[in-house]
Amino acid sequence: MDVLKIHPRGYCYGVVDAITMAKRVAQDPHVPRPIYILGQIVHNQHTVLELEHYGITTLDGASRLDLLDQVPDGATVIFTAHGISPSVKAKARERGLTCFDATCPDVTKTHTLIQERIREGYAIVYIGTRDHPEPEGAMGEAPAGRAFLVTRLDDVAQVPFTPEEKIAIVTQTTLSQWDTASIIQGLLERYPQAEVHNEICMATQLRQEAAVKSADEVDMVVVVGDRRSNNSNRLVEVVEKIGHKPSVRVESAHDLKPEWFEGVATVGVTAGSSTPSRITRDVIKAIESFPVKIPE
Ligand code: SF4
């Protein structure tokens, strides 16, 4: 089977920096033990397991404020690449924990923007994914009632702010640029005066554009990424909706099913920005080993 290796794919700079920071912290004998990460450092189970070998425990759960209660006094805590709300930082400081912040600079930029707009009296309409740590962290920069999460076009009617208010529309970094455009359009019809800040990061945009462009040259696209990786799930979506080709997401080569490839001659392979290269390499190798079966 022919494989088109789509570029760019896989780890972005924010993920590489976060993992490097976590490993450095683990190797520093002066850092207090035990060491915890508040949530998955990036949404990939393989990376979480690798960090376990470094002696880092990942705490996973819905609220990072509550997760902090599982960290014993005197321990170290690492904040993930997705960013963290001020209330979590304050609680960790009050508890006297040693803290390291692996927030991606692109996410920090969104936090700074929200802080500035809140100071200027704006209400924030945040376009993002429900139950994902990035919206939780970014919207945590706004006081209660001054930020509202919109996950799809239908939510626009639920936004509680009046058309007279100063509104800033801000997006999560890992969304589909095409879906986001239609939600922004819907919001602007209701709030024509709103400021729009499209914060989808360059790494996400380039991976999506490459996947859509490559869809023209292949019969289907396999996306390698964790089920919780927002940008991996968005890659599947944009290939199907914008590239008009079938797409599946796999977490590793074990998930591949030979029957997917019947009638397929060329497969594009890409990976979310939290997927380790070795996992993608294994998937490529496995697909290359499948024989081409074109029905007579
Ligand atoms: S996907 Fe974008 S925002 Fe997320 S870690 Fe990578 S560069 Fe940063």
Describe it.
The chain has ten helices and twelve strands. Strand 4 (76-79), helix 4 and strand 5 (98-101) form a beta-alpha-beta unit. The protein is of the alpha/beta class. Helix 5 packs parallel to helix 6 (133-139) and helix 8 runs parallel beside helix 9 (230-241). 38% of the residues lie in helices and 18% in strands. The mean pLDDT is 96. The chain has a four-stranded parallel sheet with strand order 1-12-10-11, with helices on both faces. Strands 3-2-4-5 form a four-stranded parallel sheet, sandwiched between helices. The chain folds into three domains: 2-11 and 202-289, 4-hydroxy-3-methylbut-2-enyl diphosphate reductase, catalytic domain (Cobalt-precorrin-4 Transmethylase, domain 1, 3-Layer(aba) Sandwich); 13-104, 3-Layer(aba) Sandwich (Rossmann fold); 106-197, Cobalt-precorrin-4 Transmethylase, domain 1. The longest helix has 15 residues, at 13-27. The two termini are 17 Å apart. The protein binds iron/sulfur cluster.
